Amino acid sequence: MKLDARVIADAALGLLDEIGLDGLTMRKVAAALDVQAPALYWHVKNKRELLDEMARSLFVDAVDGVEAPRQGEDWQDWLVGLTARLRRSTTRYRDGAKVLAGTYVDDESMWRTVELTLRTLEDAGFEKSGARRVFPILLHYTVGYVIEEQARAGADYGEGDPYRPERIGSIVDPARYPRTAAMVTEVASADPDAEFEYGLRVILAGIVATGTKG
């Protein structure tokens, strides 16, 4: 197999389920590709650059095939669908959202997606300055939501996972904190897809209500 940055990034992503982001090293990626670690440095200079390439791979996969809204499609529904794509891409891998957080994605797919989003918002009546604020808000919400969602999967806790359904209900004393106990139990059993979309709808409603939309 011919090495390039995408091949290396995909190999690194493939290791995440086993070792997580904290356990990822250039040496382990090289071993997975059956090469020596110095061979990687022709294509990625260091782990920081590797993480950027991994984030690029996640984002490219997320937006593959994205097009402008269909005729008559509501702009909010289109944005919900776009962010859901990104969530699905990051949840494919353990720590996928952590990979995307704080990384730099320099790819045509990023700029095309942002341009489509801005045009969709302007067509929906947003002023240019308001439209420019929306994409970062939705990106940050999506990454933050998935980081929390993946943390609740408990992969980093092992047997001591505090998010196990049989355990989480006993963490908060319902006699002293009845509302909090009910909330914790409800959050643990909630449908993550539904909760993700609910949060998006709240954000979008707030964007309109606060006058970001012209």
TrEMBL record:
HTH tetR-type domain mapped to chain residues: 2-62
DNA-binding region: 25-44
InterPro entries (alphabetical): DNA-bd_HTH_TetR-type_CS, Homeodomain-like_sf, HTH-type_TetR-like_transc_reg, HTH_TetR, Repressor_TetR_C, Tet_transcr_reg_TetR, Tet_transcr_reg_TetR-rel_C_sf
Highest taxon, organism lineage: Bacteria
Keywords noted in UniProt: DNA-binding, Repressor, Transcription, Transcription regulation
Keyword Transcription: yes
Pfam families found in the cross-reference section: TetR_C_1, TetR_N
Transcription as UniProt keyword: yes
The protein's name in its UniProt record: TetR/AcrR family transcriptional regulator C-terminal domain-containing protein
Species this protein is from: Nocardia aurea
